[in-house]
Specification:
Chain lengths: 117, 114
């Protein structure tokens, strides 16, 4: 199997605080993980590509200083929303790529709902 | 840049019926992969089926099958004998070979009625 977990599943914080979301590949190693943001009834918007041992690659329009990504091991990537504001409230989803001899497959975490008051 | 378009925002069918979800994409590359993902109310993204562009044979997974038309850049999903548990958002997605990064369509909300 290929299981990806996220923690926490939901979080409420006050405006101006920072929030860290963890993404773990439980039964495989992932050199590459991805972070998405999803607004209600909309598609997934890729925020950044997280590469183990190197800096993340951010998509155009995503503030790297606002959304800090760390991929310190082959099974863990973290997304920190710094100085969160109400407009950062959203559903954040991570995915991890499982590589086999003949294919790469992305497996998704269950998501984290962030509410900033 | 690659784009994926799903022109059906919502669909609704009766249980046990067959339903087809449409997807078109645009790319100038020849080596790529296409996917259908399902997102039920729990919001967990689940891979339904994948298709390698170099394969002419359409992929099938139990009740799910695709109609891959490479020249037309079309990739539709057919769900046979639909079940209540098939109710979900369905996303068509594209990735270039070796790139890993997925490009998603807007999604189709499918409701299976009892």
């Amino acid at each position: 199997g290929a299981v990806v977990s996220q923690h926490p599943s939901w979080v409420i914080c006050k405006s101006g605080t920072s929030v860290k979301i963890e993404c773990r590949s439980l039964d495989f190693q992932a050199t590459t993980m991805f972070w998405y943001r999803q607004f209600p009834k909309q598609s997934l918007m890729l925020m950044a590509t997280s590469n183990e041992g190197s800096k993340a690659t951010y998509e155009q329009g995503v503030e790297k200083d606002k959304f800090l990504i760390n991929h310190a091991s082959l099974t863990l990537s973290t997304l920190t929303v710094t100085s969160a504001h109400p407009e950062d409230s959203s559903f954040y989803i991570c995915s991890a790529t499982k590589r086999t001899v003949d294919r790469d497959t992305q497996y998704f975490g269950p998501g984290t709902r962030l509410t900033v008051l | 840049a690659q784009t994926v378009t799903q022109s059906q925002p919502e669909m609704s069918v009766q249980e046990a019926e067959t339903v087809t979800l449409s997807c078109t994409y645009d790319t100038s590359e020849s080596n790529y992969y296409l996917f259908w993902y399902k997102q039920p109310p729990s919001r967990q993204m689940i891979l339904v089926i994948r298709q390698e562009a170099y394969k002419q044979q359409n992929a099938t997974e139990n009740r799910f099958s695709v109609n891959f038309q490479k020249a037309a850049k079309s990739f539709s999903l057919k769900i046979s004998d639909s079940q209540l548990g098939d109710t979900a958002m369905y996303f068509c997605a594209f990735t270039l070979q070796g790139a890993q990064k997925l490009v998603f369509g807007q999604g189709t909300r499918l409701t299976i009625n009892p």
